[in-house]
Amino acid sequence: MPKTSNNASVESLNRANDGKLPGHLGLVITAVEPGRVAGRFEVRPDLVAHIGFLFAGAVLTVADILCAYGVSTAWPEGASGFTTAEVKCNFVGTLREGAAICSASLLHGGRTTQVWDAAVEDEASGRLLAAFRCTQIILYPRG
């Protein structure tokens, strides 16, 4: 795993949510450790589509945010940032009410790329709602 140079914490990431998309979605970070970030959000009427189910975009966005936050737990030495190269999400369930939990974990932590997986689940039953994967390109200062 790359050397960590950013000390992300539950508190710092929850502060980063304030006034931004994660905060608007109601995302609460619940765990942070090297190579792993977890969170939860409540299903609310404004996150439910006109057909009565949780918006797929809300699920994908939460998974993407947690993977992006995860990069801050596994910075390679000398890195200055990152950008997303690819995302993929397989939806296998949905919710009408309750809460969803999500856990993002580092699958590959190289010097130039990281691959992250996230699972979004129904908090009450543990039933899988979505399997998410993304690739991050690690950026370095130009010399």
Can you give a write-up of this model?
The chain has 3 helices and 6 strands. With 143 residues, the chain is α+β, with helices and mostly antiparallel strands. The protein has one domain: Roll (Thiol Ester Dehydrase, Chain A). It has a 6-stranded antiparallel sheet with strand order 1-2-4-5-6-3. A hairpin with a 5-residue loop joins strand 5 and strand 6.
Number of helix segments? 3
Main sheet strand line-up: 1-2-4-5-6-3
CATH homologous superfamily - what is it? Hotdog Thioesterase
CATH topology term:
Thiol Ester Dehydrase, Chain A
Question: How many domains?
Answer: 1
Main β sheet profile? 6 strands, antiparallel
The beta-strand count equals 6
Helix content, binned percent: 10-25%
Average pLDDT over all residues: 95
Structural class by SSE content: alpha+beta
Report the uncertain regions. 1-5
The level 1 CATH classification is: Alpha Beta
Radius of gyration, taken over Cα atoms and rounded to an integer in Å? 15 Å
Keywords:
disordered N terminus, alpha+beta, 143 residues, Thiol Ester Dehydrase, Chain A, 6 strands
How does the SSE layout of this entry go?
Blueprint: H1 10-17, H2 21-25, E1 28-33, E2 36-42, H3 56-71, E3 81-91, E4 99-109, E5 113-122, E6 128-139
Antiparallel strand pairs: 1-2, 2-4, 3-6, 4-5, 5-6
Short description:
This protein has one domain: Thiol Ester Dehydrase, Chain A, CATH 3.10.129.10. 20% of the residues lie in helices and 40% in strands.
